[in-house]
User: What shape does this take?
Amino acid sequence: MKKTKTTFFYFIFLLMIITGSALPQEQKEGFKPSGKVWGMVFGDIYYKAAGDTTGSFVGEYTKTDVYKNAFDFRRIYLGFNYEISEKFSSEFIAAFEGTDYLPNGKRSLYVKIANIKWKDIYPNATLVLGQLSTPTFSYTSEKLYGYRWLEKTILDMKGIASSHDFGLAILGKFDQEGKYGYNLMIGNGRGALVENNKFKKYYAGLYGYFWDKKILADVYSDYEDINSNKNKTTLKSFIGFQTPEVRIGFEIFNQLYRRFYSDGSNKSTFGFSIFSAATLIENKIYAFGRFDYVDPDLNHSDLGYKENFLIVGADFVFDKNIHFMPNLWVNIYKDKSAANVERKADIVPRLTFYYLYK
Assistant: This one.
């Protein structure tokens, strides 16, 4: 672990040199600090038509009783962005994420995002300190996907990586137009939870826009020590195509968890996701679909269940910030062992609603 610690301190030392040589200059006349309050809400009217409730899988409805139906929120955001100066800005989001309940069953908010950004710390780069979106998918695949309110992207959905973490990041571009860039981050690896150990998580991603920005591609990796003997490495790649009429994306990942099992063997989780959205009537009706495949462990052919996830539906736009989306959410399980134990598919028809105010 000495190499990891050395890398961490070299990174901090480099940032100290950069920040020391990039001290902010006097503010230009005419600049006025300003802020903006905004919010976002999405949820569903849903009915679990099939499945069971063993709760042994990661997913939205794996612990939901069969035949249960409800009106429910999956996300409520209250955000505030503030331009402190020409060089500095801040970001804050209080969130309810669908599972955050008080002991009395009422919904609760938590601090999801809270950070300060130092713009142009060096040419075309921003330094961010605090709780922020991770480079895993927030700036690339999730952005092009465009339907987070329907379902998380595959790495987020399956608990492979978190959308946010507390740490220090550099978000940079190789060119003035922002066609090519990189994102580097060191974080606690705990998401919104308070750090509880001495280990850190290291993130790195490269991305590029091609063909008049119709194509977006990225490669990404992260490394995290779990304890003195165990660690995880994630590799991910994404390519997407977008025009005003259609969006198509393909994302693939592999996560190696070293010495995961009691016998010292490794766990290797593999998966991919394909999604598409198409315009039926411009600014009024869109169609969408997505298919995911996950093998929980490539190293063990008889452990766990392979999962096939499908979601299809339509997006009715009542306003650019108001959407109603009838959709079908399905997760199918296939036992990898010779016993071929049946696990019923989770099938959930929904009417999803989304609105943004700012």
About this structure: Residues 30 and 86 are 11 Å apart (CA to CA). The chain has a mean pLDDT of 91. The helical segments are 2-21, 141-145, 154-157.
